Structures are given as structure tokens and as C-alpha cells.
Amino acid sequence: MKAAINTRYGSPDVLDIRETPKPEPKSGEVRVKIHATTVGRTDSCALKAHPFFMRLVTGLWRPKKTILGLDFAGTIDAVGSGCTRFSPGDRVFGLTPDGFGAHAEYVCVPEGGPITAMPAGKDFGDVVVCEGAWYADTNLKKFKIGPGHKILIYGASGAIGTSAVQLSKSYGAEVTAVVSTPHLDLAKRLGADRIIDYTVEDFTKIGEQFDFVFDAVGKTTFFKCRPLLKPDGVFAATDLGPYWQNIFLPLWSSITGNGRVVFPMPESSRTVVDFIKARIDAGEFNAVIDRRYPLQEIADAYRYVGTEQKVGIVVIDVLP
Ligand SMILES: NC(=O)c1ccc[n+]([C@@H]2O[C@H](COP(=O)([O-])OP(=O)(O)OC[C@H]3O[C@@H](n4cnc5c(N)ncnc54)[C@H](OP(=O)(O)O)[C@@H]3O)[C@@H](O)[C@H]2O)c1
Question: Which residue from 41, 95, 310 has its CB within 8 A of the most atoms of ligand 1, so it is best to mutate?
């Protein structure tokens, strides 16, 4: 099979599209013929091994996983012994459970892991949304968001941000989305109740307070957003922030018991993809696709994702 292989860390130039043996499903695993995957910010960081501490997980000197890619959508191609949930030909989507492997024509995953049947009437590119939705929902669940809550989502145009707006609405919350001018219409389409253009207005001075402030793009801080929080309001961010403060502030928050800052780590499980499928089936969640690239041009997709300007997801079309 063809795969995008990175045997060393570096820029997208280190990626090599080449033949590698097709994986064989072990007992309890299914093999998926991949039609669509994505290049996300996690792939982009893993390719560069940036921040450096990622190497503790991804390999100190060289990558332990030489095929990246978290999201996949495709058809079941083969099943290992003991599999009963899927049969060859079934259309499925999900997340690679133990990290990466989807930037290839085939991947093997446990059938009891984060994989589920495709929603009816959807294209493969429409469902490779799990990475963003997973991170967004991890934070929303930590907030225990629900009807009557007010949330401000900063960076509402990225993969996590567009997911957070749609999922917050599906939880019944009132959403204020903060984006730049080109993304005002998008935020409206996604269902935001109020939209702030951060290029023309200081979103921290809008004179309103929220139950939750979610920095979906990791570009603001708790201290800037503090005036936006109700006395018992909670802040979360998706990135480490200056001086890794988004690691230390939640620690301080839990030591003092004030719970003002949280930084939950997502756990991949079947529940996650079943939840996303249910939202898509209910018409509450739609993919926001910025660009599509064939697998052969995946290095260009990485270059684009590296600009930190993508809107929603960047889809890689793998096999027809
Ligand atoms: N916690 C984790 O384990 C985890 C996992 C995955 C990703 N992440 C992090 O989460 C963050 C978001 O990931 P993502 O994939 O959703 O990002 P993304 O899709 O790359 O976000 C890009 C979007 O953010 C907007 N943006 C860029 N700079 C901005 C700023 N200063 N203020 C407001 N909006 C800005 C851009 O539009 P404009 O510039 O036009 O506004 C663009 O639409 C990244 O920092 C990523 O590293 C964390």
C-alpha cells in the first residue's frame, strides 16, 4: 500500500509517499481501506516534534510512529478472527486509537475501539471531523455545559472552534463566537448567537460575563479573559499558553479548589465516535472543509495546516 512516511522529524519535506506492506488485522481488529483522512494540528506538531517534550511520547531521536494521521473514513476491507461488529464492505469512520497511522491506504484498528458506522448519505470527507470534535467535546463535557449556560468561544473558525460552536448549540447553550472578519458568516452558519470580530473589537471588553470561556485556538490567556467570566465561570484552552500556564493554572485551580481553569486531556474511546455520529445523524454537526488534497500532495496539506490559518478541516483523499 502507499503511505506518507516520516522516518525523521522535520518540515513537510521529510515526508515520503512510498510503498509499504499492507497491515494484517490481528484477532479483534478490522482493516479499513481509507478513502479520506485529515492533516490536523496534532499531525503537524508530531511531524516537527514541537513542542520538544512531545518526543517523550513520539520517540526521543526519531519517530516511533512513521505514519501519522488520526481521523479516517473508509470501508472495511478485512476482519481478524473473533470480529463480529463489522463485515467487509461496511462504511465506517473513526480515530486511530493508539495514535496515528491513517495517512495510508489501509489501517488496522480494534473493532471495539473508536470506530463506528458512517452516517447515511454522507461522503467520506464529511465525517473525518473526529479530532476537532473530540477535543472540543472533551472541554465541553468538563464544563458540564447545558441549557441556559453562556459560553464564549475564542478562535471559533478552526477545527476545534467550529466543532465547539456546533456542539455547544447542541447542548443547548448560548454561544458567542470570536473570529476574524472573513469568518463572520461561517460563525453565523454554525449557529452562533453572537459574533465578535476580534480584528475590530476587543472581545474582552464587551461588557458581558459567561459561564465558560473556551480558547479553542490557544491564542489568548486566562488573565486576559478573566473579566469575561462570571464569579464561578470556568476557562479552558487547547494549547499550553505562555510559559505553559495552561498546565500550571489548572493545577493551581485544583489545589485551591476554585476550579477556574481546566485543561482536560481527551481519551479516545468508542463513545466519542458514537457521540459524533449521533450529532451528525441529528443534523446538529456538519464538517467545515477548508481544502482537499490527494495523498500524493499531503506535504502541501501540512504546509497549509502549518500556517495556522485553516478553517475547519483539511481533508486528504486517499483511495477512490
Ligand atoms: N490539547 C491538545 O491535545 C490539542 C490537540 C489538537 C490541537 N491542539 C491545539 O489546539 C489549537 C487549535 O487547533 P485547531 O486544529 O482547531 O486549529 P486550526 O484549525 O489550525 O485553527 C486555525 C484557525 O484559528 C484562527 N486563528 C488563528 N490565529 C488566531 C488568533 N490569534 N485569534 C483567533 N483566531 C485565530 C484562524 O483564523 P484567523 O486567523 O483568520 O482568525 C483559523 O481559522 C492549536 O493550538 C493546536 O495546537 C491541542
Answer: 41
pLDDT over 80 (residue 97): no
Ligand 1 atom, smallest distance to 199 CA: 41
Query: If you search the block for the grid coordinates 520538544, which residue do you land on?
Result: 52
User: What pTM, to 2 d.p., does this model score?
Assistant: 0.96
Tell whether ligand 1 has an atom less than 6 A from the beta carbon of residue 308. yes
CA distances from 107 to 70, 110, 142, 163 (A): 11, 10, 31, 25
Residue ranges covered by each domain of the chain? 2-128+288-317, 131-262
pLDDT tens digits, 203-244: 999 999 999 999 999 999 999 999 999 999 999 999 999 999
Domain 131-262 has CATH 1.10.10.10: no
Smallest CA separation from ligand 1 atom 22, residue: 158
In whole angstroms, give the CA distance from residue 233 to residue 210.
6
Q: Has domain 2-128+288-317 been given CATH number 3.30.360.10?
A: no
Ligand 1 near 239 CB (within 6 A): yes
Same fold, 2-128+288-317 and 131-262: no
User: Does the beta carbon of 46 lie inside 6 Å of ligand 1?
Assistant: no
Would you tell me the crossing angle of helices 130-143 and 270-281 to the nearest 10 degrees? 100
Is 217 close to ligand 1, i.e. is its CB under 6 Å away?
yes
